[in-house]
Amino acid sequence: MTIKYPYQFNKLGRTATSDEDLHIKDMIYQLLFTNPGERVNRPNFGCGLLQAVFEPNNNEMAATTQYLVQGALNQWLSHLIQVNEVFISTIDSSLEVKVNYTLLRNKKNQTIVFQK
């Protein structure tokens, strides 16, 4: 069973579920937006992408963010996905994180984009 993230109820009042592809996207979202130290039993879990909101938007920060995102994905989700590319772009005051990955179970290529 793949529980929907963030936790929700379905129309019957039961725990909402999602298909496996959407569940993996939810797991990526959860990993990237969790700060290390935020989880009690997994203090190393997370990427800390939210901390980038308060950093200057320049090439050094983009390179650091790319390294953190790729490292976290490889550490925590390598049993489900193969990370093909993490692309960080800084445009004016916005930061865009694009993750291209392949699902290991069916070799399907996916891309997910986050913007600040």
Task: Give the SSE map.
Blueprint: H1 20-32, H2 59-77, E1 81-91, E2 94-103, E3 109-115
Strand sequence of the main sheet, in spatial order? 1-2-3
Class computed from helices, strands and strand pairing: alpha+beta
**Using DSSP, what is the number of strands?**
3
Q: How far do the termini sit from each other?
A: 31 Å
Query: Mean pLDDT score, rounded?
Result: 88
Note poorly predicted spans: none
* CATH architecture designation: Roll
Share in helix: 25-40%
Rg on CA atoms, Å: 15 Å
Q: How many domain regions?
A: 1
CATH class: Alpha Beta
Protein name: GPW/gp25 family protein
Domain IraD/Gp25-like: 21-106
Pfam family, one: GPW_gp25
InterPro entries: IraD/Gp25-like (IPR007048)
Description:
This protein is an alpha+beta fold. It has one domain (20-115): Nuclear Transport Factor 2, Chain: A. The chain contains two helices and three strands. The protein has helices at residues 20-32, 59-77; strands spanning 81-91, 94-103, 109-115. Strands 1-2-3 form a three-stranded antiparallel β-sheet. Helix 1 (20-32) crosses helix 2.
